From TrEMBL:
GO cellular component: membrane
Annotated organism of origin: Cicer arietinum
Family: Belongs to the amino acid-polyamine-organocation (APC) superfamily. Cationic amino acid transporter (CAT) (TC 2.A.3.3) family.
Domain of life: Eukaryota
Key words of the record: Membrane, Transmembrane, Transmembrane helix
One Gene Ontology molecular-function label: amino acid transmembrane transporter activity
Gene: LOC101493466
Protein name: Cationic amino acid transporter 9, chloroplastic isoform X2
Length: 565
């Protein structure tokens, strides 16, 4: 009672420890990769082991087409035409134009970066910081995992439906084999889907040469069938069916464009094949843009045929193109369509699994994931551990769960990745001009403008979705244009050393605005998913990533040249 106890130092110590943890987290989260010089890039590309460089420009174009065109070309064209009428052709042209400018951004980054795996993750790591790159990866990967499982179940369903053409098998194949036997809303047993996934995973583990050959064969088959369908349908077209061209108004055409945009998604897969491309700086831009242009031409051809064969209001919902040919007595074409759908889903699934493994490989090399993901087979030159991992995850999801019910939370990763890639083009042009020494105030101002463009795009999307007054939509567009002009006149830009996206920063800003406009069109559960996944992955990064990541790790990565041909 008579003496006073000495003051404790625990609160101060606790406060100091907390401050130290926050400081370490911020310093780790904000670090970035160094953009190598052209000389370093050349030396790195000519080194000696790792993934095998076997993909030529034709392989890359087929890779992009294989990823983009699945069964949707035979379905989504008709379902959207049911609302937009013959104007669905304009919907596909608008969506295709938007994808082309996104592709220009991807092409620039693919040509200027060292030929290594990573795609959008790698670009974000260099232009922004480690945490942003990790979050982009997590959003993309969730899309890929659920998407692969969903495609596998659709493929299994199409195969069983095709087999049921034969009388001996009709109604004799149990649902749990291919169609899916549901037990409640979540559990759904499907045996064939995981079998297909593991077979494709095995092909991918054998080597890029083998998997590229399978993709090329299936993609050529698919393109051939689509061309046959277009020519066969062209002789059945009645031009009077194209009038009225936009029966539900211009708004339905724009709404249709927001839907069919996702039919083109997949060209970005080419960017993830950089380390296996023979001449990446030349061939990647050609592969990205070339595959997209082929897809646009095929989609437009199918749209013109389907709306010309049958009045738009009579198109079916589930198989509109096949129904249109059956109504004309051309049942053999509907069988071709089934084969084309199987080929399309097979290539989309194959390329999706391929891209996932390469992204895991990139993060394993950088230390953001365990090092087992960075291991490459010494003879096959494929990331077998990463490939088996993504195959197993997709197999579990496809074999046990009704993943189709999760389709409304997809596309978040795609739109996030496309927007970040467009922003990377702008940011890296600042860095180039001053050899990476951008003043903090100029960089801060530029980032604020980019964020303003994104926010305006999202706001315009919400206003359009809920049919607000057009004045408010125009106001959002005007503010976005103002932010873009500020970027144009307040920053200094240099040309890209490789393929150069035209109109920087305006073209990338158009990409960001439209991608975020589409983000505003997504189901509200997709927005919730974006927030929840981001929070969880920040926690994962805080616990594991910040302590193991090494942005300079890939400086020691070397690659394997394909044998001379």
């Amino acid at each position: 009672m008579g003496g006073s106890s000495p003051p404790t130092s625990f609160p101060a110590s606790s406060s100091s420890s907390s401050s130290s943890c926050c400081s370490r987290f911020l310093s780790s989260a904000l670090r970035s990769k160094r953009l190598v010089t052209p000389a370093e890039k050349t030396a790195r590309d000519n080194s000696g082991r790792g993934l095998s460089r076997r993909l030529g420009v034709f392989d890359l174009i087929l890779l992009g087409i294989g990823a983009s065109i699945g069964a949707g070309i035979f379905v989504v064209t008709g379902t959207v035409a049911h609302d937009a009428g013959p104007g669905v052709t304009i919907s596909f042209i608008l969506a295709g134009a938007s994808c082309v400018i996104n592709a220009l951004c991807y092409a620039e980054l693919a040509s200027r970066f060292p030929a290594v795996v990573g795609g959008a993750y790698l670009y974000a790591y260099t232009a922004f910081n480690e945490l942003t790159a990790f979050l982009v990866f997590s959003q993309l990967m969730l899309d890929y995992h659920i998407g692969a499982a969903s495609i596998a179940r659709s493929l299994a369903n199409y195969i069983v439906t095709f087999l049921e053409i034969f009388p001996v098998l009709k109604d004799n194949i149990p649902k749990w084999i291919g169609h899916g036997a549901n037990f409640g809303d979540v559990l759904s047993i499907n045996v064939l889907a995981p079998v297909l996934l593991m077979l494709l995973t095995l092909v991918l583990c054998l080597g890029v040469k083998e998997s590229s050959a399978v993709n090329s064969f299936m993609t050529v088959t698919k393109i051939t069938i689509v061309i046959i369908v277009i020519f066969a349908g062209a002789f059945e077209v009645d031009v009077s069916n194209w009038s009225p061209f936009a029966p539900n108004g211009v708004r339905s055409i724009f709404t249709g464009a927001t839907v069919v945009f996702f039919a083109y998604v997949g060209f970005d897969a080419v960017a993830n094949s950089a380390e296996e491309s023979k001449k990446p700086q030349r061939d990647l831009p050609i592969g990205i843009i070339g595959s997209l242009l082929v897809c646009i031409a095929l989609y437009i051809g199918v749209c013109l045929v389907i709306t010309g064969m049958v009045p738009y209001n009579l198109l079916g919902e589930d198989a509109p193109l096949a129904d249109a040919f059956k109504s004309k007595g051309l049942k053999f074409v509907s069988i071709l369509i089934s084969i084309g759908a199987i080929a399309g889903l097979t290539t989309a699934l194959l390329v999706g699994l391929y891209v996932q493994s390469r992204l895991y490989l990139g993060l394993g090399r950088d230390g953001l994931l365990p090092s087992i993901f960075a291991k490459v087979h010494p003879k096959r030159h494929t990331p077998i551990h990463s490939q088996l991992w993504v195959g197993c995850i997709a197999s579990i999801l496809a074999g046990l769960f009704n993943v189709h019910m999760l389709s409304h939370i997809l596309s978040v990763g795609t739109l996030t990745g496309y927007s970040v890639v467009s922003a990377c083009v702008v940011v890296l042009r600042w860095k180039d001009k001053t050899n990476g020494l951008v003043s903090s105030s100029a960089r801060r101002e530029g980032l604020i403008c980019l964020i303003a463009v994104a926010v305006c795009g999202f706001a315009a999307g919400l206003l359009f979705r809920y049919e607000a007054s057009i004045i408010f939509v125009i106001l959002a567009i005007v503010v976005g244009v103002g932010a873009s002009l500020a970027l144009l006149f307040r920053q200094v830009y240099a040309d890209s050393p490789g393929f150069s996206c035209p109109g920087v920063p305006l073209v990338p800003n158009v990409c960001i605005f439209f991608n975020m406009f589409l983000f505003g069109q997504l189901h509200h559960e997709a927005w919730v998913r974006f927030v929840i996944v981001s929070i969880i992955m920040v926690g994962v990064y805080a616990i594991y990533g910040q302590y193991h990541a090494d942005p300079s790790a890939e400086d020691n990565a070397i690659y394997h040249e394909a044998p001379a041909e």
